[in-house]
Design a protein that fits this description.
This protein has 144 residues and is mainly alpha-helical. Helices cover 81% and strands 0% of the residues. It is elongated.
């Protein structure tokens, strides 16, 4: 009896596989393992430092993440949950925590979008500058 058809379609789906790999990227053990293997293999390539605008967007992403984490780990909500508070109190605390999660997520998402647009603008400017340089070089070559 062959089981080749069972479950293989789920794992082979690139969207699901990429989502799983993205989630594993946030695991602290996976991060530590990647750092150790990059140090050992010597693939630790130096990167250019971020510009002031990129630093501002990255700081906004971190701030949003931290606000969302306050909502997730809200001690008032978890205390009321574990102490067996009434349903109305629990719903109020859950709504309060949910508001923090939504605000933090929105702030992070807003800064992620701004950072991507900023980096795309830089890439477009760099490509247009390279194209302009190639055109000038070809014009100089033709003119000689």
């Amino acid at each position: 009896m062959r089981l080749e058809g069972r479950g293989s379609s789920v794992i082979k789906s690139p969207k699901i596989w990429n989502a799983i790999k993205d989630m594993l990227g946030y695991c602290p053990y996976c991060m530590a393992g990647k750092q150790v293997t990059s140090k050992i293999s010597g693939k630790n390539q130096p990167t250019k430092p971020p510009s002031d605008n990129e630093k501002r967007f990255l700081e906004g992403i971190r701030t949003g993440r931290n606000i969302a984490l306050v909502g997730v780990f809200c001690p008032i909500f978890w205390t009321s949950l574990f102490m067996g508070a009434e349903k109305s109190v629990l719903l109020f605390n859950a709504a309060h925590s949910g508001i923090f999660i939504c605000i933090g997520g929105a702030l992070s998402l807003f800064n992620i979008i701004r950072l991507r647009r900023f980096r795309q603008e830089i890439e477009v400017k760099k490509n247009s500058a390279l194209l302009g340089k190639k055109m000038v070089d070809s014009a100089n070559f033709i003119g000689k």
